[in-house]
Amino acid sequence: MPPVTALEARAAVAQIEHTGDLGLAVSGASLDRLFEAALLGLCDVIVDAGKIEPRETRTLALAADDRELLLVRLLAEAIYLYDASRWLPAEAAVAVGDGGRRLTAELRGEVLDPERHEVKTEVKAVTYHALRIEETAAGLRGQVILDL
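The chain above was modelled as a monomer; its predicted structure follows.
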C-alpha cells in the first residue's frame, strides 16, 4: 500500500480534551492504517504536519506483547526521534504482523525547520491511561492519551 500522508491521516484522527493531557481518537480500516493515522496525528499535535516534507526515510522495526502496547511503542519512538533529532514524519507506511505484536514502518519526513514549522505543543510521553484498540463495524477504533 502507498504511504499515508499527514493530510490524509487528519480525517481519521480526532483530538480529545483530557485533564492536563490530550487524547487522540483514531480510526482505520486496518491495524496498519490505524497505526499510520495515530503516528501522523501525534505529529499534527506537535506542528502542522501538513507542512512537513518527505525529504528522508527512516525505517523502524518494533515489537511488543500486544497491539495496544505496540501502538505505544510506535508513538514513543516518534517522540524520541523528535526529541533527539527534531525529526518528524510527513508520510508513514506501517505493516503490522504477528497478531499485532510486531511492525515495520517506513517513515518519510524531515528535521524541524523553525522557518517553516511552528511548534504548537510539546508532547512529553504516551500514557497507558485509557489505551485501547477495538473492532467496530467500520474497522478499528483506538484511543491513546498523550502527556503534554
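The beta strands are 4-5, 13-18, 21-28, 56-63, 87-97, 102-111, 125-126, 132-136, 139-147.
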